[in-house]
Specification:
Nucleotidyltransferase, domain 5; 139 residues; rod-shaped; 5-stranded mixed sheet; 3 helices
């Protein structure tokens, strides 16, 4: 016994609105619960060693640090009595120059803290242009 005629058959349909709602809820859930890690990066420009002749500059202060941690400013030995005292010595060496280039020549076996001391003294003195000398390696 057939109660319905064949011509009145319903076609199945897919309703996309509940599917879109579920996908949006999942997307919002993932966006809220995801943690994004941000890595702190330092922009470092590493110096390159070049065998060319060093440029002579009148507005530079040469600071040498030897393996025992002794300092010299423009080939004059200086004792390190703290960063503020060393910054005063840097100011005296600079004279009338407003922003000299601090050229640090450190021995390969010098303590790392010795170089940091020079950099800290230059910061206290207000000098921001610091560079390091390098030596061309042997082949």
């Amino acid at each position: 016994m057939r109660f319905r005629p064949r011509a009145f058959r319903e076609e199945p349909e897919i309703n996309f609105i509940p599917l879109i709602d579920v996908l949006l809820v999942i997307l919002i859930f993932l966006m809220v619960t995801t943690t994004y890690s941000r890595f702190a990066e330092l922009q470092i420009n590493l110096p390159t060693a070049d065998a060319s002749k060093q440029q002579e500059s009148r507005d530079q202060i040469d600071i040498a640090v030897d393996a025992q941690g002794r300092y010299s400013i423009n080939h004059t030995p200086v004792t390190f009595g703290g960063a503020t005292a060393f910054s005063e010595a840097l100011r005296r060496a600079a004279g009338d120059t407003k922003d000299p280039v601090i050229v640090i020549s450190a021995d390969a076996n010098s303590p790392h803290q010795s170089v940091i001391n020079v950099m800290e003294a230059a910061r206290i003195a207000g000098y921001g242009r610091i560079t390091f000398t390098t030596q061309a390696g042997t082949k």
